[in-house]
Amino acid sequence: MLPIIRRNVYWAMSQTPKHLSSRKLCSTESPPIITNESSNDKAVITLNRPHVHNCINATLACGLYEALKKFEKKSLLIIKGAGQAFSSGGDLKWIFQSRNAEGFKMFTYHNACILKIATYPTPCIALMDGFTFGGGVGLSRFCKYRVATERTRLGMPETLIGFHPNSAASYFFTRMEGRLGWYLALTGETLEGSDVVRAGFATHYCRSDRLENLERDLLNSPSSEESEVENILSEYSENLPEFSLRDELEKIEECFSASSMEEVFTKLEQTGSKKTLELLKQLSPTALKVTFRQLEKSGNMSLKQCLNMEYSLTASFLLFHDFPEGIRTKFIDKGKKPRWAYSTLTEVPEDVVNKHFETRPGEENQRKLLEPMGDLL
């Protein structure tokens, strides 16, 4: 039986080191982005919405984009979250209430941040302590070095609310070994602690109570050479226990190598993976079929192409019945069973799946923003 990974979330506190000078990017009392510069040409960007676990809205996405542009010539950049999370992803309530130009602007600039980090000339280090979900995964995944702790909880839970995995999920899920990426994308399951490293989402594993010292040593080091950065990271790295999914990878490969979402269901039933099958049966059939098609299409796409495709998908989902329904039953009428547009996979018309991939208004704005940047194949 395939695992249902625990969704319990714990967070660790993260503080700004005293030896840095701090400057706010905007004049509000609680700026969503805080930047810190050291005296030896290094910088720290802090996602600063701790009251909502650093959820991403348009203001945060735009502020992060400007900070990334500003620090391109620094010798080292650290990205972290304030409070008890790295980032819990898109601010779903805000997105639900802002299904307009402001909402689409958030996705455009968030995608631009992901592409900029992926092609950044400066070594980036993500400190992924605590909640790292959805858009937070996208921001951290393309940093050169990614540090997880025992408190890290990572996942892309979009299908659980009738949505689709975005934030470059099309790119990194289809490039994971075997079919683990497909499993995580479709089920929305969570990885914890050292499993985040074992699955490839992090490069190093450090105790949360040592993160402040790690950050201090990285910033105080006279060198930003790759070998020196890696030596410091290695000094703080803990030994990894075995991957908790190790014994399930073969079954995940068998079930999620299917040629359709319907076949995934059949294989799960044949292998006795009842818990995973029952989980998927509760989710939006449309979201599952669109996500499956999304993964199929993205295997040979560049990162930029994936981000542009995801923009159209996101815009489509914002206008489709199931995403508002998922938000309603998750955050408003809590505990109520969602009424999806279609009850089963077989009921979902092919043209409904196809329409989700059509170009949407606003995509051209994103294409123009991303066009001058580099790309990953």
UniProtKB/TrEMBL annotation:
Which protein, by its recorded name, is this? 3-hydroxyisobutyryl-CoA hydrolase, mitochondrial
Question: SUPFAM superfamilies, per this entry?
Answer: ClpP/crotonase
Q: Name one Pfam family in it.
A: ECH_2
> For this protein, what is any one GO molecular function term?
3-hydroxyisobutyryl-CoA hydrolase activity
Q: Which family does it belong to?
A: Belongs to the enoyl-CoA hydratase/isomerase family.
EC number(s) recorded for this UniProt protein: 3.1.2.4
Q: What top-tier enzyme class does this entry carry? A: hydrolase
Going by the UniProt record, its keywords in alphabetical order are: Hydrolase
The record's section on InterPro entries has: ClpP/crotonase-like_dom_sf, ECH_dom, HIBYL-CoA-H
Cite the Gene3D superfamilies for this sequence.
2-enoyl-CoA Hydratase, Chain A, domain 1
Record GO cellular component, one term? mitochondrion
**Domain (Enoyl-CoA hydratase/isomerase) ranges:** 43-357
What does the protein in this record do?
Hydrolyzes 3-hydroxyisobutyryl-CoA (HIBYL-CoA), a saline catabolite. Has high activity toward isobutyryl-CoA. Could be an isobutyryl-CoA dehydrogenase that functions in valine catabolism. Also hydrolyzes 3-hydroxypropanoyl-CoA.
Q: Could you state one GO biological process linked to this protein?
A: L-valine catabolic process
Q: Per its UniProt entry, which superkingdom is the organism in? A: Eukaryota
- Organism of origin is Phaedon cochleariae
**CDD domains from the UniProt entry:** crotonase-like
Catalyzed reaction equations: 3-hydroxy-2-methylpropanoyl-CoA + H2O = 3-hydroxy-2-methylpropanoate + CoA + H(+)
